[in-house]
Amino acid sequence: MPLLHSMVHRLDPTLDGERLTLTTAPAEADSTEPVMESLVSALNDTYNTKPKGWGRFAEEGENAGPLSVWLRDYLADEQSFAELSGALAERLAKQLQEQLSVSGYLVISHQRQGDTDTLLMALVHQREGIGINDTHQAVPAAQLNTRQLTLAARVNLTQWQSDAPDAQYVSFLKDRGGKKLAEGLAQLLGMEEGVDAPTETRTLLKAFSDYVEKEDFDDEASREKTDNLVDYANDQLRRGEPMTLEALSELVDEQQPKAFYEHIRQADYGLAPEIPPDKRTLNQFRRFTGRAGGVSISFDSHLLGSSIEYDAAQDRLIIKQVPKQLKDQLTRDS
Questions:
Q1: Angle at Cα 220 formed by Cα 216 and Cα 222, nearest 5°?
Q2: Rounded CA gap, 260 and 282, in Å?
Q3: Mean pLDDT per 10-residue interval, the chain, length 334 residues
Q4: Which residues pair with 138 in a beta bridge?
Q5: What share of the chain is helix, strand, coil (3-state, %, to 5)?
Q6: What whole-number distance in Å separates Cα of residue 311 and Cα of residue 36?
Q7: Distance between CA atoms of residues 116 and 185, nearest Å
Q8: Least packed by Cβ within 10 Å: which of 13, 25, 96, 126?
Q9: Four-CA torsion 240, 189, 163, 246, nearest 10 degrees
């Protein structure tokens, strides 16, 4: 992951805790230093696993902000990275002091991975640790906590410049406990939120379950296709990139690479062509399947304990909400 530019600023609350003071970096960090590249790489890894909001820059109205203008000037070489970074840090400091007092280091970086350029902004907190000095004595050693982020955002610059109509190229951390902070960050970015990652991921998994049921795959094929979907989603999650329905369709059914994609379109699930994967939703997804004596059962694991119960003592599976199609057949034949 080549690091093109990076700067680290310092945010400190005043003694009364009512406002933030910003200490800007005197110069860019040396992006060729392996330690700096490792820091940004670690922040990306943590960011990829966190719940996020997704969207795009607001073109006009009250949500529009100056970031898109600053980025255009920067990419056109009309503004330096130091100027862009400093302007972002100042605006963030003003935005944050209306929400809460925090302290830490604000890392802003421009990085390239393959053909994709991204701008990352992350507030990293410092924690006290223990190190060993030259005389082999234990001494206090401050460390950056790269595994715990409360504020971070990333702009896919390449996707933004492509101007694709459905692209969700801006993302930001959206943890349950930091609603006000997330709202302030979205306002800072000047974005309008679009795709809801958890909802979209749940809808995709529902579409997949319907497809597997419709095609009546055997147990082995069903498990294989489920594994393909989850592996692809987790791989995109680690890369920090969205899932694409066409690529997923090819993985789900290699014999009919467009079948799953057509199933989604014909059934009108309302899914966007690209879906940011949601880790929590994926972790809850697994299919239970079984077939014996003329009975075939298949259901998603998240239904167990709610609409489906298993009584281990009596070896019974209790279905509380019978599918409408099955209910109609049972009613008709009773």
A1: 45
A2: 19
A3: 90 76 89 90 89 82 79 94 94 74 85 90 88 86 86 91 80 74 79 81 87 79 84 84 88 88 86 83 75 74 70 82 76 71
A4: 132
A5: 40, 30, 30
A6: 55
A7: 23
A8: 126
A9: 30
| Sequence-ordered list of residues with C-beta below 8 angstroms from that of 1, at least 6 positions apart, any chain | 37, 40, 41, 44, 111, 112, 113
Instruction: Look up residue 39 and give its two tokens.
Output: 């820091």
Q: Quote the tokens at residue 213.
A: 């049921």
Residue 53 to residue 193: CA distance in whole angstroms:
7
Structural element, H or E, at residue 3:
strand 3-13
How far apart (Å, rounded) are the C-alpha atoms in residues 3 and 325? 55
Number of residues that make up the chain: 334
DSSP type of residue 136: S
Q: What is the DSSP letter of 50?
A: S
Check if the beta carbon of residue 249 is closer than 8 Å to that of residue 259.
yes
pTM (2 d.p.): 0.72
* C-beta separation of 313 from 302 below 8 A: no
The helix (H) or strand (E) run that includes residue 185 is: helix 179-189
Q: Cβ distance 224 to 232 under 8 Å? A: no
Report CA dihedral (175, 179, 185, 190) to the nearest 10 degrees: 110
Query: In this structure, are residues 21 and 96 in contact, taking their beta carbons and an 8 Å threshold?
Result: no
Which of 156, 88, 157 lies closest to 123 in space, CA to CA?
A: 88
Cα-flanking dihedrals φ and ψ of residue 212, to 5°?
-60, -40
Two tokens at 280?
């929590």
Radius of gyration of the chain (CA): 24
Conformational region of residue 106, where left means phi above 0, alpha means psi within -120 to 50, and beta covers everything else: beta
